[in-house]
Amino acid sequence: MKKLKVLFLLLLFSNAMHSQVLLSLIFGDKLNSEGLEFGLEGGVNWANISNLNNDGSVRNYNLGFYFDITLKERLHLDTGVLVKSTLGANNLSSEDLTFLEIPTESEPGSYKQELSYFIVPVLLKYSLKNRIYFEGGPQIGWMRKGFVEFNYDDGNEEIRIRHSNSDAINKIDAGITLGTGYRLMKNDGMTIGVKYYFGMVDVYKNRTGTKNNSLFLKLNVPIGANAAKKKREEKENKMNE
Hints:
By secondary structure, the chain is of the alpha+beta class. It has a single domain (about 1-240), classed as Porin (Beta Barrel). It has helices at about 1-25, 95-100, 225-240; strands spanning about 35-50, 60-70, 75-90, 110-125, 130-155, 160-165, 170-185, 190-200, 210-220. The protein has an eight-stranded antiparallel β-barrel. The longest helix is centred in the N-terminal third of the chain and has 26 residues, at about 1-25.
């Protein structure tokens, strides 16, 4: 009964997070105000796990929303949630598969570990006059699911098999993120950036030194910022009349 309650809460939370991305597109101007910028964050990342014998990074797309809160003139707090985000490792070796207790297939395919997370960064961001910024701070992730995927494709036959191993993985991940980026327009508008995540919590419950790490390329798009700015200007004009 307890497992059913937990499953129901997790499904409810997952649906709520995905709905939030849709709602942000509709009500973005309501979430933007003086000193607060809200929008969507998306991009691609290359992830790996330390202390494995694999040879390759997992590449995946990520999507979520962000809040940029002004603390001082050039100092900001950058937070939000990556709703769709995947970490892991590619080209697992036979030693890795033995450790993970994953059966090997007869076809000569490749194996990868994929870990789906909700990721929440809490970063301090400092912006320079030339619109370049630097940011850094803690990041925490909550794992939704983990699996090892086997892929085989010889041009005539394609095989994909997934083995769930969520129970062997710590649900909470945490570490440090450092990054830099550039705002494309002077005051408002999109920003592009790159950040690197250094995990500090073991991925697997029974092997130390297995840390997540990932390089993120991102694009931040303010939602409704121009509309919110226009409303503020109209309100100020009325007050001055």
